[in-house]
Design brief:
heterodimer; A: mainly beta; six-stranded mixed beta sheet; B: 116 residues
């Protein structure tokens, strides 16, 4: 079965600084990979997704993620963080033939200092 | 605008009572899902439904029940058999169940259930 690890529970960055949130997955083949964002008390919003092709994918709100097969990673990045980016970020994995049943990581809480 | 509506946003119940959480979508999506979110545990799938009058158990279905009598509605009942019902519950939908990549999940804003 697939699994997802987000090793950082909390991350604090200064506004304008760069951001990288880590995500490692475990699966025998290439999975579907997703990053979602959740503002406090809200549902989740899809930031970006990856399955194949260019390993660097662009998403909404200026986010991007890079798939590295050798490291089983799909880290989320943003060159310059805005205070409104403060939220919880979830990495998720789906598998071909697995329907729409995603496995979510435990999330990384991002705090942005002004 | 199309979307998913979950109501109420906050719900309080006494232990031993069943409670039903509402989820309505106007996205014309075939598939609907219920997730439970607890701090530090991410999201866990409770039930999902691919089509009207059909649903399947997810990873943590014990103590929960659902129905899918209409395409747009997928209510979740938290029964008294659920040992730790206090949590944040998220409803989601997707255009299909065949591929998570081609039909990603759309989420409602959740219901926070507190049982005392």
């Amino acid at each position: 079965a697939q699994s997802v690890t987000q090793p950082d529970i909390h991350i604090t960055v200064s506004e304008g600084a760069s951001l990288e949130l880590r995500c490692n997955y475990s699966y025998g083949a290439t999975p579907y990979l997703f990053w979602y964002v959740q503002s406090p008390g809200q549902g989740l919003q899809l930031l970006l997704k990856y399955f194949s092709g260019d390993t660097l994918v662009q998403g909404i709100k200026g986010f991007e993620a890079e798939f590295k097969r050798s490291q089983s990673s799909f880290n989320l990045r943003k060159p310059s963080v805005h205070w409104s980016d403060a939220a919880e970020y979830f990495c998720a994995v789906g598998v071909m033939g697995g329907g729409n049943k995603l496995t979510f990581g435990t999330g990384t809480q991002l705090k942005v200092e002004l | 605008d199309g979307g998913i509506t979950q109501s109420p946003k906050y719900l309080f119940r006494k232990e031993g009572q069943n409670v039903t959480l509402s989820c309505e979508q106007n996205l014309n999506h075939d598939a609907m899902y219920w997730y439970r979110q607890d701090p530090g545990q991410g999201l866990r799938l409770i039930y999902y439904s691919q089509i009207v009058n059909d649903f399947q158990k997810g990873d943590i279905a014990e103590g929960y029940s659902v129905s899918r009598e209409k395409k747009e509605s997928f209510p979740l009942t938290v029964t008294s058999a659920q040992k730790n019902p206090t949590a944040f519950y998220l409803c989601a939908s997707s255009s299909g169940l065949m591929s998570s990549y081609n039909s990603p999940l759309h989420f409602g804003n959740g219901t926070r259930l507190t049982v005392t």
